[in-house]
Design the sequence.
DNA sequence: GCTGAGCGG
């Protein structure tokens, strides 16, 4: 009879029916549609980056040309004209990464709207908003 | 490698 006693004691734990559990949680947390997102702190929704998206490039502009043009405003850590992997031709945009945010901001201010290989190059609004006011 | 908005590796 010791075995019977053990069996009954382990089976003693009981779970409430799903319907009751759902009702309980809706009573304790307000409603099934949990609204309470009490997050009053949201200072950096999008973090500024030293990496700039550069569009409007001439399809003849190369990674070197891009780096040269942007190097006047700071230390260019990484520059790349995006090319199609199969054809190898420029897609007309690229990326420039500076060492610091200050240089990145200077790079935007210095290069936005400037000509490079006959094309007016433009920075993304995202990057400008994030960098030009810091 | 023309094309002309877009966010690669």
Sequence:
């Amino acid at each position: 009879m010791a075995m019977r006693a053990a069996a009954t004691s382990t089976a003693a734990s009981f779970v409430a029916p799903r319907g009751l559990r759902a009702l309980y949680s809706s009573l304790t947390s307000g409603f099934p549609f949990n609204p309470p997102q009490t997050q009053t702190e949201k200072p950096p929704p999008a973090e500024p980056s030293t990496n700039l998206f550069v569009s409007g490039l001439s399809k003849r502009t190369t990674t070197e040309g891009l780096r040269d043009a942007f190097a006047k405003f700071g230390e260019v850590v990484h520059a790349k004209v995006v090319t199609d992997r199969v054809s190898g031709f420029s897609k007309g945009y690229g990326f420039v990464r500076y060492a610091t945010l200050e240089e990145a901001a200077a790079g935007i201010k210095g290069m936005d709207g400037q000509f490079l290989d006959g094309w007016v190059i433009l920075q993304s609004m995202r990057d400008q908003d994030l960098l030009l006011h810091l």
